[in-house]
Write a structure and sequence with these properties.
Elements: E1 11-15, E2 18-26, E3 33-39, H1 46-62, H2 68-77, H3 85-112, H4 122-132
Antiparallel strand pairs: 1-2, 2-3
Helix pairs in contact: 3-4
Length: 136
């Protein structure tokens, strides 16, 4: 299969009540741009066709720079459950909350017992919390 496809970015166009996924392509002339379109053909209602078009354009744009062959290979390995970002975000939030609960205990031990700072997990915990909350 050829890896040549219409370059990104793709967008959704509506023309006379029909939905298209479109991309501007350079045709070799500096003043000539041509819009290449793909019509969303289905028996679905208009909102579904429009949603499909937006999903197609978003997926293509998100995968810019990744070859089609690579996408097909990876697609065979990834299951929908592996892409469940909501589950991963919930798990991250639970782990972050649990780590925050340990801070007072770690601070107590750090304050009351002489422990080498290089092995004590308080700084590590604080750094992990900062990263998870969007800090550095």
């Amino acid at each position: 299969m050829s890896n040549k496809h219409t370059p990104e970015p793709w967008q959704v166009l509506e023309v006379h009540g029909e939905v298209f996924v479109a991309a501007n392509t350079y045709e070799g002339h500096p003043y000539h741009n041509r819009t290449r379109t793909i019509e969303i053909m289905s028996d679905e209602d208009y909102p579904t066709k429009e949603a499909d078009a937006h999903r197609i354009a978003a997926c293509v744009n998100a995968c810019e720079g990744i070859s089609t062959d690579m996408l097909e290979q990876v697609g065979k390995l990834i299951t929908p459950s592996a892409l469940n970002f909501h589950q991963l975000n919930a798990q991250r939030d639970e782990l972050l909350a649990a780590l925050k609960l340990t801070l007072p205990v770690l601070e107590h031990f750090r304050k009351n017992y002489p422990i080498d700072d290089t092995i004590f997990p308080l700084a590590i915990a604080r750094t992990a919390i900062a990263k998870a909350e969007g800090g550095t």
